[in-house]
Design goal:
Helix content: 25-40%
Structural class: alpha/beta
Number of helices: 17
Oligomer: single chain
CATH topology of the largest domain: pyruvate-formate lyase- activating enzyme
CATH architecture of the largest domain: Alpha-Beta Horseshoe
CATH class of the largest domain: Alpha Beta
Strand order of the largest sheet: 2-1-3-4-5-6-7
Strand content: 15-25%
Radius of gyration: 22 Å
Number of domains: 2
Number of strands: 15
CATH superfamily of the largest domain: tm_1862 like domain
Length: 474
């Protein structure tokens, strides 16, 4: 096989979409798993691979021009979400102008969800649908497009969409992500979300068997697949040797297989790996027990995030979360008992939400007394059941995907079935104001900060977020 040159790009604005929001100060800046994983697979065939992560670029246009000129890639792959699609299209157009013979490949959740639209509205030649590692290897190998499962492509003025590629069952088959393709010294995660920098992200499984209406399952599906415990811990060792000082688990199902999660912890302890780590994406409250949490604590995990969404049982049922308020309370108490920090994800503006149910969410968040409660406003992303339902009802007002940003204004994107946006925003602000400005929370956070040395960080982050509405009653 001829050695090819492949450039993998991630757009600049993936961080800037949070500008002007309370959570901007907490957003982690870490190397992306997706490009590292694809890079690792391409290196398996001895290709020459570069990653250009524009989120850490001071001058994205200049960096793109320089790398295109110096590297002269045969293939350029760009991964992006819906909110970043416009920028990705602009980058693709720029690449096509400078490198007309390079094959342009789109990947990620947006391309997978809307492959035909992506090709129709851009200069991309191919869209990767689903998991990209093996598909990219086949594209680069020169295999005929008609024979590659899991792609859409342009042909004779039209678009062809091939059948999906079967999901990779054995995730241990994947090579280690090519983290060395990043300059990890450029990455920094705020202290509120880390203990040591640089932080590395890790996936130990793919696929989520549950069916929350606000989640997009188009890339990894509901088919749960996991790396073995041995592979996970070996990969952690590899990341630490490369210079990462902390690891965050970015996936939907770390504890879906409870026994595997416990075995990972036991192996970390057995190998005497001393490093801070964090279940960043969240665990389900019905997939944890005291034994797991005790093992997590012993293995160095300092924070567990849990998906709660609402403090009203009817709303939890309406979004197909499949848990109960009692399970949430029990999980919060177990996490606290284990001596691990707790972060809870909530949302307002969910299907069925009213002023009363959003007030229930605020009240419940106070009751369970989490270390860090975090609230968002629902965004019905393409490919999710809630988007499809509201689109059929005529509630989706815009397909300008650049507006589909979490923590941003939604009134131009969709109409909520039974709430005005100023009401949703009022309860969003009220959530943060009543939880974070309560004497109880401030006292607890101050005490924690004095013990850990984080008190000055907490004050700094609070002052940074004052302009975004702590004291404004809408």
């Amino acid at each position: 096989m001829d050695r090819k040159k492949i450039l993998l790009i991630y757009p600049h604005t993936s961080i800037e979409v949070f500008a002007g929001t309370k959570i901007r100060v907490a957003i982690p800046v870490i190397p992306y798993i997706s490009l590292a994983s694809i890079g690792g697979s391409l290196l398996r065939d001895s290709h020459d691979v570069h990653i250009l992560d524009l989120t850490v670029s001071n001058n994205p246009e200049k960096d793109i021009d320089k790398l295109l000129e110096e590297f002269a890639p045969h293939f350029v792959g760009i991964s992006f979400t819906s909110a970043l699609s416009k920028e990705a299209f602009d980058i693709a157009r720029k690449v096509k102008e400078k490198m007309p013979n390079a094959l342009l490949i789109a990947g990620g959740v947006h391309s997978t969800t809307l492959p035909e639209e992506t090709l129709n509205n851009s200069v991309f030649d191919i869209v990767v649908i689903g998991e990209g590692e093996e598909i990219m290897r086949e594209i680069v190998s020169g295999k005929k497009h008609e024979e590659i499962l899991g792609i859409a492509y342009k042909k004779n003025g039209g678009i062809k969409i091939n059948p999906r590629r079967p999901f990779l069952d054995d995730l241990d088959f994947l090579p280690y992500p090519a983290w060395h393709l990043y300059d990890i010294k450029k990455y920094h995660t705020p202290r509120i979300n880390s203990r040591r920098n640089p932080v590395g992200a890790m996936e130990t499984s793919r696929g989520c068997p549950f069916s929350c209406v606000f989640c997009n399952k188009t890339v990894f599906s509901r088919n749960f697949r996991a790396k073995s415990a041995n592979r996970v811990v070996d990969e952690m060792e590899y990341m630490l040797k490369l210079g990462f000082k902390e690891i965050h688990i970015w996936e939907d199902g770390f504890s879906t297989d409870l026994n595997r999660a416990k075995e990972i912890c036991r192996l970390i302890i057995k190998k005497r790996l001393f490093f801070p780590w964090n279940i960043y994406n969240g665990m389900r409250v019905d997939r944890m027990d005291e034994e797991l949490l005790e093992l997590l604590k012993k293995a160095g995990c300092y924070r567990v995030s849990i998906g709660i969404e609402s403090g009203n049982q009817n709303i939890i049922k309406a979004v197909n979360k499949g848990i109960t308020l009692e399970q949430i309370k029990h999980a919060a108490n177990m996490i606290k008992k284990a001596g691990i920090e707790s972060l809870g994800f909530f949302m307002v503006g969910l299907p069925g939400d009213t002023e009363e149910t959003m007030q229930d969410t605020i009240k419940f968040a106070k009751e369970i007394n989490l270390d860090l409660p975090k609230c968002g406003i629902l965004m019905p992303l393409p490919g999710t059941p809630v988007f499809e339902d509201w689109d059929k009802k005529g509630l989706i007002k815009s397909r300008d995907w650049s507006k589909y940003i979490f923590h941003a204004e939604r009134s131009s994107v969709y109409k909520h079935p039974n709430l005005e946006f100023d009401v949703i925003r009022k309860y969003y602000d009220k959530f943060y104001r009543e939880l974070y400005l309560s004497p109880r929370f401030i006292a607890r956070r101050l005490w924690r900060g004095l013990k850990t040395g984080d008190v000055f960080f907490d004050i700094y982050y609070f002052l940074r977020t004052i302009p975004y509405g702590w004291f404004i009653k809408r």
